[in-house]
Amino acid sequence: MKKRTLGFWEIWNMSFGFLGIQMGFALQNANVSRIFQTLGAQIEDIPILWVAAPLTGLIIQPIIGYFSDRTWHPKLGRRRPYFLVGAILASLALFIMPNSPVLWFAAGMLWIMDASINVSMEPFRAFVGDNLPDHQTTRGFAMQSFFIGIGAYVASKLPNILTYFGVANTAAEGIIPDSVKYSFYIGGAVFLVAVLWTVISTKEYSPEEMKVFEEAEANDFIKEEKPEGWFATNGNIHMRNGFIVLLIGLIASYFIYSYDLKKDLYVLTLGLLGFGGLALIISGFMQKGNNHDNGFVTIMNDFQNMPTVMKQLAWVQFFSWFALFSMWIYMTPAVTEHIYKTLDTTSEAYNNGANQVGEMFANYNIIAAAVAFLLPLLAKRTSRKFTHFLALVAGGLGLMSIYFITNPTAINLEWLPMIGVGIAWASILSIPYAMLSGALPASKMGYYMGVFNFFIVIPQLVAASILGFMVSKFFNNEPVYALFVGGVSMIIAGILTLRVNDTVSK
């Protein structure tokens, strides 16, 4: 028994929810730094305020994936309950975020908003892997990329569009402009409606059917019974590695404290202590005590035994998303400081520059939507990994080029750098997932898609931790250099793609 080949409109409907999800993310990415600066944040403090977003994903996504693999509702199915709950919460958060009265409230709302979007978004990746046969997965993820591009394009342009209708683009010091507020309101409404469309118009295979598919489809994940004593031995390994990671985290924390380095760096060391050292030690202790039949140990051991392709793609994802996060954090201050020569959030020049960043983000997303269906054709003629390599190199060069731009005309700033970034973005959103889905067991699709997002989240945490330090210590507080570093990182990701063992049929 095999999964049936789906028609165009069926793939359209199952991907349509991403239109709303990406409107939420795009409003966040293009405007949160602006909101933080308006509420009094300094440039060097912006990355640490952003840390809520990746940290939330690190916690939420594998948990949601794990539980969605084990969920079955007679009417809503496996993944759709999570789409719906996440959409409702995210829409509410989008209405509240631009009304944040003070900086700490905005930082907290970013945490809540990102958690809600992640609850809705994470199962969408597994949804494609669940419902499409292998030969359609690249097309399915390309459809998601199309809706991501369209949603992000519209959301990124919303503040500028609203100004054409007389909505104020400036406000008193410490007040979020109405153009940003109304954009978030529109985004919240579209988010809910788009996800509801997917929930109502699609169906899912039952657990019994998925079990048959898993047995019929070959991949490099081999399910095997663990011999007696395996968990005790593995528990010793986890405990040993946990204590090593714990020691590294403590030494690094002491080094930061002794040399009075930026507090942002504690994000990395506390991550090593908590999510690395302590988690491994607890897992080891439970396995040694023969307490291994639970979700926590299962998550830890599945992470340890992830498929080979996933391990190879992890490095590609790390450098790709480090670059993207540098862009999302620093594009607004880089453009306003490097090109418009101002950081005064009440000035017309600053707000014009901030709106132009919205145009830049809109442009790279519409380019991503335009090329989304061309990438599978190129991959079919060459290979998926070579296509991804070309796209990432184009994106890296686009980010680096912003350093050399001094004239903010539309063609120079809003289009030329964003062509490469848009091509890279379309590829990042589709090709790695297409390469990965064929290597995953159907019964763990949601969990492993969640774990795969570790390699999106971890580089964002690294970026939030070290970019502020680098900009202040090495680049004289000039944020445009963070974009240049991001461009180099994306090119490294492209080179690493060439070593991925992508043998799954296209």
Give an overview in words.
The mean pLDDT is 84. With 506 residues, this protein is mainly alpha-helical. Helix 2 (17-38) crosses helix 13 (308-339). It starts with 7 loop residues before the first helix and ends in a 9-residue tail after the last helix. The protein has helices spanning 8-15, 17-38, 46-50, 52-69, 80-96, 103-131, 137-164, 178-201, 207-216, 230-258, 266-288, 295-304, 308-339, 348-371, 374-381, 384-401, 410-428, 431-437, 445-452, 454-474, 480-497. It contains 21 helices and no strands. The longest helix has 32 residues, at 308-339.
The best one-word shape is: globular
Largest sheet descriptor: none
Instruction: Give the oligomeric state.
Output: single chain
N- to C-terminal distance: 20 Å
Q: What is the tally of beta strands?
A: 0
Strand content: under 5%
Write the element-wise H/E pattern from the N-terminal end onward: HHHHHHHHHHHHHHHHHHHHH
| Total of DSSP H or I helical runs spanning 4+ residues | 21
Q: Low-confidence segments, ≥5 residues, pLDDT <50?
A: none
Cα gyration radius (Å): 22 Å
| Portion in helices | over 70%
- Average pLDDT works out at 84
Helical/strand content category: mainly alpha
